Amino acid sequence: MLTAVGDKEQVRRAALSHVTAYLLKPIANQALLEKIAQVLQLKPENIIDKKEFPLVINVSELSISQMLLEIKGCPGKKSTDAIYDRFMLTLGGRSTFSNLRINLDKAFFYETKALQILDDLVAKIIKHTNIQASSLFVDSEFFNDNVVDLQPFTYLSDVNIISK
User: Fold this and answer.
1) What is the spatial distance between Cα 15 and Cα 29, in angstroms, rounded to a whole number?
2) Of 46-50, 111-115, 134-138, 156-160, minimum mean pLDDT range
3) Most CB atoms within 10 A, among 11, 50, 93, 121?
4) From CA 78, how far away is CA 133, in angstroms rounded?
5) Are residue 63 and residue 20 in the same domain, yes or no?
């Protein structure tokens, strides 16, 4: 139950509805998280604040034909364009690169749409560069620890997933 201080009618309705706990406005983020965790029966260590894992994108050349795209942190739902733009800025119109390795840390997958973001990124790279799906390698501990069905993802299902 969410109510404002002094909102007598709301408090009365809450009492009649047998609500056992409610938050007062203004809402403290920590209090809200505690209530959500309590209702969902989550342990504090299972609650992740994505803001603690900002997106960091690094692009480097490994050889004359291979590039490395390192993505650390948790992407936003619309991060595909930012990652792609950073990659293309480094690529700089050079067409000699035909292989790409993408390294992702576990925090990337804290975003619920991470696989879709990755699929969209791979699609853009394949469509706009000389890099083919068979020459694209994705490496992340996430794939070591989780069984993932990539069939729903048109482009991601064609790349090489590295799991150690």
Assistant:
1) 24
2) 46-50
3) 121
4) 22
5) no
Sole residue written with tokens 């800025």: 89
> Could you give the angle at the alpha carbon of 40 between the alpha carbons of 36 and 41, nearest 5°?
110
Pair 114, 106: CB distance under 8 Å = no
CATH number, domain with residue 145: 3.30.750
138 in the same domain as 95:
yes
CB 91 within 8 A of CB 129: yes
Query: Residue 99 forms beta bridges with which residues?
Result: 66
Place of tokens 């799906």: 133
Distance CA 104, CA 70 (A): 6
pLDDT band at 18; cut points 50, 70, 90: confident
Q: Which domain holds residue 150?
A: 51-162
Both 120 and 158 in a single domain?
A: yes
Query: Measured in whole angstroms, how far is the alpha carbon of residue 9 from the centre of its chain?
Result: 41
